[in-house]
Structures are given as C-alpha cells and as structure tokens.
Design goal:
Layout lengths: L5 E6 L6 H9 L7 E7 L5 H6 L6 E5 L5
C-alpha cells in the first residue's frame, strides 16, 4: 500500500459481498494507503471473512448496530 488514499467500508451482515469488495480494491493498480472496514455488529460471517485478509485491512468492530 503506497498512496495517500484511504478506503472506508461500512459493513453489516455483508458476508455475501465483502470479500468481492475488498478483493476488487486490492486488485487496483493504485493501492490505497489503508482499507478500513467498520463492521457494524454483523451477526453473520462478516467478521470471520474480514479476519482472513490479515494485515491488508484494518477492522473496527461495533458491539451494537449503530444504523
């Protein structure tokens, strides 16, 4: 990651799309400085999927849904 671009992704029960979303960002020619995903108290496998990206992303987990 080498640019000054930050990507913020809100996620709530996004297990069907979050992997595709992050992989799309990671496949771009210009890589962001950071990818920050805000997991808004998902009750599906979103958190587990996010963890599979290791240190490529930063995760903020909300304990309760804030929407």
């Amino acid at each position: 990651m080498n640019s000054q671009i930050s990507i913020y992704i809100p996620a709530f029960n996004a297990e069907s799309t979050i992997k595709l979303c992050i992989n799309s960002i990671l496949s771009q020619t210009l890589q962001p400085h950071e990818i920050l995903v805000i997991n808004d108290a998902s009750t599906d496998n979103t958190h587990k999927i996010l963890l599979s990206f290791g240190n490529k992303i930063k995760i903020i987990n909300n304990n309760i849904n804030l929407v």
